[in-house]
Design brief:
HAD-like_sf; alpha/beta; 2 domains; HAD_sf; Rossmann fold; 7 strands; HAD-IA family hydrolase; 11 helices; 52% helix; two-stranded antiparallel ribbon
């Protein structure tokens, strides 16, 4: 029986309006896609709590000839998060129904701190599982076993919702029920997925 919900953030609870490519293009230009894929790869250790992303971003900007300070670009893009109100309403409704509702997200520490405070996620969720704090990132099954330990619940009583198939597969490999969903699919789809696990 599902007693807890674990929600991913980006694509499920929150959005970057226009997407990453559109947000970065004014700064990087025609090489935006190349730059982003390179900086995302460089960010991977920071998602597991190893190091500070801002100097890595600064080095990438220098490599691509971008003169905008890294901190300025980071604030303009990485922190330009819009909370999806319909998703937040689902969180509140689940809590009113007696479920534990938790956050499970891959973030380096700067963006994670912004989400905790500026977006109010510390107050919204019962337990928050940020990859940089756990020391391991999705889709590694250890992320999900550690999340279950933090939630203090059997892993098979936690339903995970994420927009990426590889993360869903990682959760299932750890023994956690999981479904793939993003906000563009609509909330009737989400409610049907929850109902399939006995969650109302």
């Amino acid at each position: 029986m599902i007693r807890h919900l674990l929600f991913d953030a980006d694509g499920v609870l929150q959005d970057l309006p226009g997407g990453w490519y559109a947000a970065i293009e004014p700064y990087v230009g025609a090489r935006t896609r190349e730059f982003l894929h390179e900086t995302w790869k460089a960010e991977l250790p920071m998602l597991a709590g190893d190091g500070d992303y801002l100097p890595v971003l600064a080095a990438g900007l220098r490599k691509y000839g971008v003169t905008t300070p890294a901190a300025e670009l980071y604030d303009a893009v990485w922190k330009r998060i819009v909370v999806i109100e319909e998703s937040i309403e689902v969180v509140h409704a689940l809590r009113r129904s007696g479920y534990g509702v938790h956050l499970g997200t891959n973030q380096e520490h700067r963006r994670g701190a912004h989400m905790r405070t500026a977006l109010g996620y510390d107050d919204l969720f019962d337990v928050s599982c940020y990859s940089h704090e756990l020391g391991v990132a999705k889709p590694d099954p250890q992320f999900f076993t550690q999340a279950a330990d933090r939630i203090s619940a059997p892993i098979d009583e936690i339903l995970f919702i994420d927009d990426r198939s590889r993360n869903v597969e990682g959760a299932r490999a750890a023994g956690m029920p999981a479904e793939q969903w993003d906000f563009t699919q609509g909330y009737d789809v989400l409610r049907a997925l929850l109902a399939g696990h006995g969650v109302s």
